[in-house]
Design a protein that fits this description.
Blueprint: E1 4-9, H1 13-27, E2 31-36, H2 39-47, E3 55-59, H3 69-77, E4 87-91, H4 97-104, E5 109-112, H5 117-134
Parallel strand pairs: 1-2, 1-3, 3-4, 4-5
Helix pairs in contact: 1-5
Length: 137
C-alpha cells in the first residue's frame, strides 16, 4: 500500500491518542496520521496545497466552541484545493438532522463514536481500506 495520510480533527486529545495507537497497531508506518485539536489548527493543516490528506476524520464539535462540522464543511467548499476530499464526520450524536446537514455539505459518512477497542479497529480499517480499494466512499 502506498503511504496513506489521515487527518483527524478532534479536540479531545485522548481520542486522538487512541486513534493514533489504533492506526499504529493496525498499519504500523503505512498510515501517516496528523491530529488537529482546534478549527484554526485544522485550517492551518489544510491551507497548504502541498498537504492533502487522503481522508479527513472530523469531529462534529470542535474548539473554539461553538464550532461545528457544518461550519468547517462550508469553509472547505470555498477552498478549491480541498474539493473532493473525503470527509467522515464523527460524533457522540446519533444519526439525525445534524448528520443529514453534514452529508448535504459534502461529508461522505457520519459515524457515531465508539467506545470498544474492537469497534475502533474496525472503524480505522474502514477509513483506510474503503478509500484505498474504492478511491471513494
Amino acid at each position: 500500500m502506498a503511504p496513506f495520510y489521515l487527518l483527524i480533527a478532534d479536540d479531545q486529545i485522548d481520542i486522538g491518542k487512541l486513534l493514533q495507537l489504533t492506526v499504529r497497531m493496525v498499519y504500523k508506518d503505512q498510515v501517516h496520521l496528523r491530529i488537529a485539536l482546534t478549527v484554526p489548527d485544522l485550517k492551518d493543516c489544510m491551507a497548504s496545497t502541498k498537504y492533502r490528506p487522503d481522508v479527513l476524520l472530523l469531529d462534529y464539535h470542535l474548539r473554539p466552541l461553538p464550532e461545528k462540522a457544518p461550519n468547517v464543511l462550508r469553509w472547505m467548499q470555498s477552498q478549491d484545493h480541498l474539493q473532493g476530499l473525503p470527509v467522515v464526520v464523527w460524533s457522540s450524536l446519533p444519526d439525525g438532522p445534524e448528520a443529514d446537514q453534514c452529508r448535504q455539505l459534502g461529508a461522505q459518512r457520519f459515524v457515531t463514536k465508539m467506545d470498544a477497542m474492537s469497534d475502533m479497529v474496525q472503524f480505522v480499517k474502514s477509513l483506510v481500506e474503503d478509500r484505498v480499494s474504492n478511491e471513494s466512499f
